[in-house]
Amino acid sequence: MGPTQPEDQPCPFTDAHFFAESLPTLYPLPSFSPPTKLTQAKGALSFAVHSSVHNAPEFQSPNRAGSPLSGGFSSEVEKRPMPIPTMVTTLAVGCRRKVVAYSWKDGEAQEVKETSLPHSPRAVAFLDQSHICFAYSPTEYAIFSLENLAVVDVTMPALVPTAPSSSGLGMGTFSGLSSYMSLGLGGKTAKPGLARVGEGEVVVVRENQGFVFDVDAKTKDNSINWPTQPEEIAFVNPYIFSILPAGTVPLTAEPSNGLGNATLPTSSSSLPQATLQSQTQPSFVHAPVIQIISSISMLPVQTIAFPFLQATTSIANVANSSLRLLTTNVTSTHLPTTLATASKIPSRLFLISTPLDRTLATSEGTSIWRFTMRDWDAQIEELVSRASYTEALALLDHVYGSSTSPKRTLILALNAVSQFRAGKYDDAINSFLDLDVNPAKVVALYPDKVAGRLAVKQGEWIALFGGPVVQSKEPSGGGAEDAASTKSSEAGSKDSAAGSKDKLPVTLSRSPSPTGSVRGRTKTSFGALLPAAASSKEDDVASLSGKKKGKVVDDATRSLETLWRYLTSLRPKLAGALASHHITPSQSHLFPTLSSTSPASLYALPSGVALADLTEDELVKRAQIVDTALFKSYLIGRPSMLGPLCRLPNWCEVEEVEEELRAREKHAELIFLYNGRKMHAKALKLLQQLSEKEDDVRDKLGPSISYLQKLGPEYLDQIFESARWIFEQDREMAFEIFTSDDVELPHGGVTDYLEKLDPHVATRYLEYLIDEKEEKSSGFHDRLAELYLGITMTAKRKGEEDKHGDVYAKLLKFIDTTEYYRPDRLYGLLSEDLYEARAILLGRMGRHEHALELYVYKLGDFTKAEEHCKRMSSPALTPSPLFLTLLKLYLRPTIPNPPNLLPPALSLIARHSGRLNPIETLQLLPPLVNAHDVRPFLVQSLRAPVFDNCVVREVSLARKEDTERQLMKLESRRIKVTDSRICPQCHKRLGNSVIAVHAPRRVTLLSPNLLSVLIADGVW
Asked: pTM (2 decimals)?
């Protein structure tokens, strides 16, 4: 029980209890003694209390630098300030034309501040620790600064006319709320309404509207609308409680949101004359109403009628009672961000009911009702269950901060789904990107033509993203209302604000939902994507309202453009993640297809996980979903982009789009898609089908040839199979398949295939390898020679002389010019009548005599015989045994009855005399051959340098022998020189001097002149 006088204002704070009865008094808790009277604030009219925690820095003393905790070292870490929390409580008491401010720091009283004011404050509310809002009257307010003791008048904005409503309309939202304590003063007359609603913000009441001001006396954009001016307001974070007088709140027929099934009391329950009212007139609640408004959205969330005990309390008694709201003070914390945490325990709210009749007040006393708020988590879950995701996010951030958590991530995803349903595609996609939502779920929001098997009905969207299924009153197929676009529907979902009371579950009413539906807008957005048979009655309504059909296309395009932005932003990220695993789209055939995976498995792919943490299969599945959806959306909205997408490496699922591409005759795109998926058989079959529509051979066969030219050796069987029908059409063009420079096919396999198909094509291919590719393998050279030989023999048997001559000429040229085949192997395959080929091969094997016999005796071609000798001999003009052998075959035949071969023999002697040995040649000549026939040969032989060389050799040898004899004679002479012998010319002693010996045995000293002469002549 509280004091019996209505003007008493109890307010608990810190460890004391404050009572105001003209003279403020402090009562310590829990003993309430001894009381402390605040005499300086005598005649108090209003007051407010603000408590906060501050950090005062404290530096460690120098003597602690070497403490054991520091490890014996002095560092900057030990000199950093250590925060010391300090509790600061401020009491502002409004008196007649003045304000008195008391303050305590950790319970220690500080200096009292007193300031004169132009008017008497009838209500007081703290904005923060240094700013206070005063209410002089219901229309006059001011902001007071405790630091400089200055007062700034508040300029109230003009009232905005609003239509009467049972719940009022709110505008805007704001956040950053903290604790606050406020009291209203009793009385039924209009009085100032004032309440702190956040750090640095206060709401003031002017008639039936509430305006929010900051510490600079500037109004905020958000405001509150009540049905009438509230008698009392209070704030319990984050809700604003207001008491509305009886008969001002319309009675709604909606249920009480699950907190009670009783209806609000009306005059019909106690006043019979109320039934005489017209049925068209709205009925009102004939009792005071406690309306709860969210300070986040400024919308009503709950309406509670008083009295709570309807069975025992009459409306007449309620009308003669005063109602006041009392809140406890919650300390605001000014700690560093890393230390500050949001309080999970809401402030307490009490409703004080006191009869105005003194007799009744004495007998019944004052009743105190305590409001119990539901747990924050329960409130958030209920908001989510009612699709009020924006409100749930705001409450979650307000209570727990904006740090990442699974619950916050879930609500953000559900809110994005709600935004998507409301047509806010860009906002929704941005949220999906920020949250790394599984793309399968995002694609599922689109119709079947885009999502395919992943498409989900709107009514199942929320459940798909992990949210509770929202119960909707609308027909099946419609989704829950969007939080952002149906705000008044969200108002009813806030019944968790008050939760329950101690005595009885209370009745509350919801605000009526606005007209219109988000579903209609959503269906319009996808109108161009859905089949024509899916049109609904919304289309008729749209046509009656004058909406143009172009709007449908615009909305559909906008939704698709948003999807394109989402998918194209994911593609490079997924490509980079797959590249880190060395996975490319060309390896897509190594992974399970998208069609082989159930939609449930695709929905189960993880969300909110970094790409680097996903497995290879999960990354591939994501890439398949993204590219397939992008392909389908391009097919609907941007067909021109299909070609570039198909040409680039992609993970599009062919089975999902091939039928649609065929139906739209997008054959080029389908072929590119087949190629990217390594489905070459399907691509080539489609090209063959398309070729039937062409008349020109180049147009008919060119696409297939170009496609086959790009296939690698791993698809050799496919190339052979698909090339067969092209060879049947045109062998010249088909041959281009195997002469491409793009890829290198195995030469042996291609040769085998072409030989079975046509030996002539095989010879062309081998000629291409040897001439252009410079193939030097003996195997291919042998094979080409064998093919030439086989074609030659076949043509001869068939009597095809022209063909036989052409191919045989190629064979002779080939075996005569190349060196990389094996002649012995080919010689064994030749028939006896191919004399020239046999001669060439015999020459290659070194059997020149047999080769020359074939030239001379079988072919009678003496020129080729001489050419063979020249080719096989040294280019120098020296005697060669091959020419002598040929001459022997001419002059000494080895066959019976030879022809006259003397003329070619004499011709050989005349032209190649330098290559023949003269003596052996003369010995081979028949006796009847006269000198005149071989005169050139004889002259050349006699002029040969071999004779001169013999004479010179013999002369040189004789001269050498004579010189050696003279030297031996001179070396045999001896002269004795003694110490007494003197030079006959200069008469000097010879001794060891250089001497000259003269004949006969005359010795003289070597004079300088003679020495110089000997040196000049090279003798000395």
From this structure: 0.62
